[in-house]
Each structure stands twice: as C-alpha cells, then as structure tokens.
C-alpha cells in the first residue's frame, strides 16, 4: 500500500439494513413516525426509510444528520456542548451552515474508533430521534463484535 493512500472501511448494505431495522423497531415501539438514512464513510446514502405519516422534510434532515455525524465522527447531539467551548462567532455561525444540523439524531457507526458510516433520524423529538439512532449504533456494535 502506498504512503499516499489510505484504506477506509465502509459499512455494507447488509449491515446498513440491520442498523436501519434497529432504528425502525425503536420508533415503532415508541409510536413514532420518522425518516431514517444510513450513509457510508464518505457520506453517501446507502439505505433509507420514510415511515408512513412522517413529515416529508424529515427525509432531508435525516440525511443531513447522518452526513454531519460521519463527517465529524461525532453524534450530532454532542454539538451543543462542543459549541459552548467555541468563540461567539463560531457558536452563532456554525449552526447556520446549510446541511449542518446540530441537534440530536445523528450517530456515527464505528468499527472500534473508525467511523464506517452513520445514521440520521428525524421526525420525532430530539430525544426520540437520538434514542432511535443510538439503537442503530448499538446494533452495529453488537453485530461487529461477533
């Protein structure tokens, strides 16, 4: 392998389907209607679902949450605490960036410390979106642990 290249593990469709199913099960158990998107390590969508009755704009919000989580290898719900340590200009400006949601519902999917993809959930409260996304991340951890 060249020193000028890096290898990046990627989530497979099979694993993305398992992650999405875990989020869907969590939503159904709570009576929620959400949109869910799973992206690979490059932020490209590989699997998604939009539950009956979920608000239409949630499709795009879920995708943006997933892309933000994978880009920073950080749950989107952690942004508030991170922003508190930043200058006023960053605290005010960063949340205004298009496609960069800073509320909960985006979770990186990891193999150890390596981000292999992410899931974004939108359509319920921030807390419920986060619980659904965390259920998916936990399912991925369990499946990769063998």
TrEMBL record:
Coiled-coil stretches noted in the UniProt entry, renumbered to this chain: none
Pfam families the record matches: HbpS-like
InterPro entries, sorted: GlcG_carb_metab_protein, PduO/GlcC-like, PduO/GlcC-like_sf
Name this polypeptide is given: Heme-binding protein
Organism of derivation: Pseudomonas knackmussii (strain DSM 6978 / CCUG 54928 / LMG 23759 / B13)
């Amino acid at each position: 392998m060249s020193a000028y290249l890096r290898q990046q593990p990627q989530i497979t469709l099979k694993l993305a389907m398992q992650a999405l199913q875990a989020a869907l099960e969590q939503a159904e158990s709570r009576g929620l209607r959400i949109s869910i998107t799973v992206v690979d390590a490059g932020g490209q969508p590989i699997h998604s679902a939009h539950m009956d009755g979920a608000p239409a704009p949630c499709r795009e919000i879920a995708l943006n949450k997933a892309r933000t989580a994978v880009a920073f290898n950080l749950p989107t719900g952690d942004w508030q605490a991170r922003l508190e340590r930043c200058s006023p200009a960053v605290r005010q400006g960063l949340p205004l960036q298009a496609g960069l949601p800073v509320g909960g519902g985006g979770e990186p999917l990891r193999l150890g410390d390596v981000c292999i993809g992410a899931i974004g959930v939108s359509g319920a409260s921030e807390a419920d979106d986060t619980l659904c996304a965390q259920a998916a991340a936990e399912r991925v951890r369990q499946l990769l642990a063998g």
